[in-house]
Amino acid sequence: MHIHILGICGTFMGGIAAIATQAGHRVTGCDANVYPPMSEQLRALGIELIEGYDAAQRALAPDLYVVGNVVARGNPLMEAILDARDPFTSGPQWLAQHALGKKWVLAVAGTHGKTTTASLLAWILQANRRQPGFLIGGVASNFPVSARLGEGETFVIEADEYDTAFFDKRSKFVHYRPRTLLLNNLEFDHADIFADLAAIETQFHHLVRTVARTGRIVHNAADAALGRVLARGLWSESERFLCPEGWHFDAVEDDGVASSFDVHFGAECFGRCRIALAGAHNRANALAAIAAARHAAVAPADAIGALADFAGVRRRLETRGSAGGVTVIDDFAHHPTAIATTLAGLRERVGPRARILAVLEPRSNTMKLGTMAAQLPDALEAADLVFCHGGGLDWDVSAALAPLGVRARVETRLPALVDAIVAEARRGDFILAMSNGSFGGIHQRLLDALGQRPDALGPAHDALGQRPDVRRPAHDGRGRLVYLHGFRSSPQSFKARILGERMQRRGYGERFVCPQLPPSPAEAVALVLREIAPGASDTLVGSSLGGYYATWLAERSGARAVLLNPAIDPARDLAAYVGELRGYHDDRPFRFETRHLDELRALHAGALRDATRYLLVAAKGDEVLDWREMVARYPGVRTILLEGGDHGLTEFGALADEVLEFAGFGGCAVDVADADQQGER
What are 577-625's pLDDT values in tens digits? Predict the structure, then answer.
């Protein structure tokens, strides 16, 4: 089937495009603005994209038009489709009929926590070899994509309540017919399409009606609105969480890096869970995911084990970098409840004494209307200082934040907002930027400005990454683990996050280094030589292009090297990418130039001097690079050859311990320190 998707560059419709392509359909599409990174991801799948909605696109003669909810009456292509009586359907309807089919659908619904909980659930299934399909409205660090068809029988979907299309005003989720329905919470949102909370409750009631009597609804027992929804009718099995009779947790410990807690169902304890997520809301998300996975035949103990390797979700308390001793954090929070919950989670992570500077962009449709303006002061109460971007709003932001007094400041221009934040920030502060959009690239603007302050001694580093101009402390002779990311990637790579978390957990946090590499290959290796200066006691871990760099650096320095699906001839492979690009973890553009190809050729390392100092991990299922080239390039090295897998090594969590063993970080830091002291004596 040839489908043409209207509004293809949105997260949901782009996910449908990817799933349709994997299912063997021919996919084309159009959108008002066709731009990276979504445009590049879709073109990489062989999808032809057209900018705009010109009626001439009917000449493509697709079998079916799939219409996103961004399309309204008056759209020229849509009007031509209606006039010609061409067949069309909505995205959710197409997904239900052509992808979900007889799959075991696990739907995650609710006002808050859908993306995180769906990501947790998908990872539990993946780690337990269920090979799920999924469509998630964010990017989970354990997966290289946000949507896939999946080889197994299960499919996890982030089921939101927004309307389906201009011709179908029901919520999207009524199309999915889940066998397992997880209801996180429910409160008023989407003021642009719902009159009040009662209207949203009705849509959730319709969703409940679609669950078979043999299905199961896992729901938050502490949420009154969900209680009202289920009181209107419940025809399925049900289990509650956050109550003593149902699923609950206790014995909570939080070390600022991860949360640990015991998981119970009634009187039965299934084990102790540890996740690299902060806050009570994330503990509840994990608990709900464990409960939902049990319905799909994953034992709670196995789910708990999987969550130890969960690497987080982009834009959920995501550290973007540190500069001048100030850490900049990004979060998707845009609803007052989510803002308050996010601040509470960050406070739990950083402790009571650290200052939190909250930076807010009221960008969602509901926030733009000012519907929840009166709730903002209470939501932001936990912040030490509050900064708000008030440009383009029709309501008085300053008046709304007046109860916060001198702690709050409003600016209508982004440069002025950045200047105000930088002027107030002190070494040791945490800046939390909250928006459901890119916020004009404020994160990098802040990092750049903080790094240029006269009092900045150079950006501080954390366990998961560092800015390119970081000068690390003098090397003390003990080995370090240096992670080198791939092309267009960053220290936010899920493999870097997993290694950073494992190193931190074992007490080696200060010996993990993960620089942001510049686009120029020559500058990238020069940065590593200058700022890190790897030696024979270090181990370089290189992913894809980073593996190519790691080989050159290892041959030069004598360091060990772990190569994860390494690039073999990157000058050949990247020739098609010359031009302006965007990173996978940053919206800011960069240029990859022709001269960079020559720089890559100059970094070819030749034959290996000592194959015993290398570990190669190659996946036969790599969809980007050829595993046979990898094996031929590294003869005689210790090799882990995966029969399936993918280029991003989705199941890297299961390999991380072996990587650390090879690098000499198999034990805990206390043992190493004791051994060092004994040697000195």
Answer: 888 888 877 666 888 998 899 889 889 988 888 889 999 999 998 889 9
Q: How far apart are CA 35 and CA 31, in angstroms?
A: 9
Domain span at 628: 481-672
Q: What does 406-470 look like in DSSP terms, one character per residue?
A: GGEEEESSHHHHHHHHHHH--TT-EEEEE-SS-GGGHHHHHHHHHHTSTT--S---BTTBB-TT-
Q: How many domains does the chain have?
A: 4
pLDDT in tens, 456-488: 433 333 333 333 333 333 334 478 999 999 998
Query: At 621, which CATH number?
Result: 3.40.50.1820
- Residue 504 tokens, joined: 């931190």
Residue 330 burial by CB count (10 A; 0-12/13-18/19+): exposed, middle or buried? buried
Task: Dump the DSSP string for 207-250.
Answer: HHHTS-TTSEEEEETT-HHHHHHHHT---SEEEEESSTTSEEEE
pLDDT at 168: 92
Has residue 312 been placed in a domain?
Answer: no
CB 281 within 8 A of CB 238: no
* 547, 644: one domain: yes
In whole angstroms, how far apart are CA 543 and each of 128, 481, 488, 500, 520?
Answer: 24, 13, 11, 15, 17
- Tokens 């997993």 belong to residue: 498
Q: What is the CATH number of the domain that holds 258?
A: 3.40.1190.10
CATH code, 387: 3.90.190.20
Positive or negative, the Cα torsion across 431, 436, 440, 444? Answer: positive
Q: Cα 313 vs. chain centroid, distance in angstroms?
A: 3
Q: Amino acid identity of 297? A: A
Contact by Cβ (8 Å): 413, 385: no
Q: What is the pLDDT of residues 260-312, one digit of tens each?
A: 899 999 999 999 998 877 777 888 999 999 999 999 999 999 999 999 888 76
Nearest residue to 594 via CA among 608, 615, 577:
577
Looking up tokens 């220290």 gives 491
Let me know: does 496 contact 481? Beta carbons within 8 Å. no
pTM of the model: 0.62
Which amino acid, 513? V
Residues 6+ apart with CB under 8 A from 358: 339, 343, 380, 383, 385, 386, 387, 432, 434
Region at 103 (left for phi over 0; alpha for psi -120 to 50; beta for the rest): beta
Task: Look up the CATH number of the domain holding residue 8.
Answer: 3.40.50.720
Q: Where are the alpha helices (DSSP H) in 484-593?
A: 494-505, 521-527, 545-557, 570-573
Together in a domain, 265 and 198: yes
Residue after which a domain boundary falls, among 433, 451, 469: 451
Q: Are residues 282 and 333 in the same domain?
A: no
Taking a C-beta distance cutoff of 8 angstroms, is the pair 317, 342 a contact?
yes
Q: Which two tokens stand for residue 565?
A: 């699906």
Q: What is the pLDDT of residues 363-414, one digit of tens each?
A: 776 677 777 788 888 888 889 999 988 888 777 888 888 888 888 888 888 8
**Among the ranges given (15-19, 37-41, 675-679), the one the predictor scored with the smallest mean pLDDT:** 675-679
